[in-house]
Amino acid sequence: MTVRRTGAEIFFRSLLREGVEILFGYPGGAVLPIYDLLPRFPGIRHITVRHEQAAAHAADGYARATGRPGVCLATSGPGATNLVTGLATAYMDSVPVVAFTGQVTTDHLGRDAFQEVDIVGMTRTCTKHNYLVRHTEELETVIKEAFLIASSGRPGPVLVDLPKDVLTGTAPATPRHEAKGRGYSPPRRGHPLQIQRAVSEILRARRPVLYAGGGIIHSGAHHELRQLAEMARIPVTLTLMGLGGFPSEHPLFLGMLGMHGTYAANRAVSECDLLIAVGSRFDDRATGAVASFAPRARIVHIDIDPCSIGKNIRVHIPIVGDARVVLGQILQRLEDHQGPMEDRSPWLQRNLQWRRRFPLTYTTSQEVIKPQHVVREVHRLSGDETIIATEVGQNQMWAAQFFPFRRPRTLLSSGGLGTMGYGLPAAIGAQAAFPHRRVVVIAGDASLQMNIQEMATAVQYGLSVKVVLLNNRSLGMVRQWQSLFHGGRHNESILEVQPDFVKLAEAYGVLGLRATEPQQVVPCLQEGLSAEGPVLMDFWVDPHENVYPIVPPGRGIDRMILRGIKGKGLETEEEEPVDLPA
């Protein structure tokens, strides 16, 4: 007799086969067949968020911290649409997420039934692929394909829409080996001729720079990146998404490049004669004005997504392949090379001079808390194994600048979409994956309020997330842009009414702490970071503090505002590029 299983049972068995341990979700009518079976599958832990957007962000945070696909579940209609921002966030940053949504029964599709939306059509532009499952017999294969697509090639979110009758219907139980995904095989190895061209450029370059992005993290290529930098004596700069992919204390590290990058990184890219881009898509926040980006450089671009190569910047040597594999190919060619390599000593010395002359800095104060000081103390007191999740805005940039990321998968941040409200639920996802590691959210008061209801989720499931709130009582980055580029007209960026965050934390059952003076920062952090359970630490920071350096809109990354004077900026001096002696 053929064994038949319901779609809901197939759903759970398929997740277990994919190694899924945690499911972030929110119940609703269309997915009740799934929730009805939840007690029968104790191998999957369900975490009920307080808003579906947070389910997508938590799955995203889980994926970034572990390298495995994160999984979320929402019901039909508004439950499904609430996932869209989280899916777009994951899509922009190439994060493997598999999202399941409930849907009306197949005989009601297209009839404007209660809570029906075309979520497949709605998410076509913010998912790597999506499915509407019409028959229970298709479900096992579709789920297998969804995980394969989400996690291979350039990672990204995949959505699977599940009509209720597909979940209640039955299908024959199939042996595991019969559920095969369709052919999908992105290239991993770079073309040998392109590898040789890249190696030839490396050997003769006098002023090379390695420019790496999130692809270094996704492919696990951090060891190969360091090997190449050390073997060929090439300085390294990282994008926001790449932070942690190269040790921050390494003498070849220039820091982050781009709009809020370091002087050394931006200047080196502007003057290099060879730029080796690895796993980065040349985002406008990294390049500034395209016309003046690396104007003297031959550009090698290594990326597993062929659509990313040449999309924003003209490149001379495109190499399609997995970053770790391609870097390994380049390293092998360099190891086999018997001839000389160009002397990089003058170039490295010049980079060192830039780093010493224009380090990341801020003005200290004995009267008001500086947010940069808080970030530095978080690192000093928490260590390199800490996972940092950020919200979006000034808090995000201060974390990127002043927390020295030394290991991959220790920074969770919405880079491409810039999603306010990302940090807290992403931290919940990471803490669920690693219950014994310290997970800290560096947040701004405006962003935190986007999904602050997830404090209840942290309490319910015993997730010891620590929130470090840099409270400047404003939309900080918006206010900064208004100060610098809009005549100081702070229209609607000052938050005149704010909650008492300590009382709000306590209302959720969270320990709330506050520091309003510089001397209170360290005691507050010591108490909060060592306490059991989730904690919210409210730091009243200087409301006038800005993020520097900053590249003004429309300018090249070599034209930075380095520091502020009474709300205004001081631009870098004009420096003519000087050719170094051979």
Describe this structure in words.
With 582 residues, the protein is α/β, with parallel strands linked by helices. It has 3 domains: 4-178, Rossmann fold (3-Layer(aba) Sandwich), CATH 3.40.50.970; 192-357, Rossmann fold, CATH 3.40.50.1220; 371-540, Thiamin diphosphate (ThDP)-binding fold, Pyr/PP domains (Rossmann fold, 3-Layer(aba) Sandwich). 35% of the residues lie in helices and 17% in strands. The chain is built from 23 helices and 22 strands. The protein has a 6-stranded parallel beta sheet with strand order 3-2-4-5-7-6, with helices on both faces. The chain has a 6-stranded parallel beta sheet with strand order 11-10-9-12-13-14, with helices on both faces. A 6-stranded parallel beta sheet has the order 16-15-17-18-20-19, with helices on both faces. A hairpin with a 2-residue loop joins strand 21 and strand 22 (568-571). Helix 1 runs parallel beside helix 7 (139-151), helix 16 (371-382) crosses helix 17 and helix 16 packs across helix 23 (521-530). The longest helix is centred in the first third of the chain and has 15 residues, at 52-66. The protein is globular and about 75 Å long. The relative contact order is 0.11.
Primary descriptors:
582 residues, alpha/beta, Rossmann fold, 3 domains, 6-stranded parallel sheet, 23 helices, 22 strands, disordered C terminus
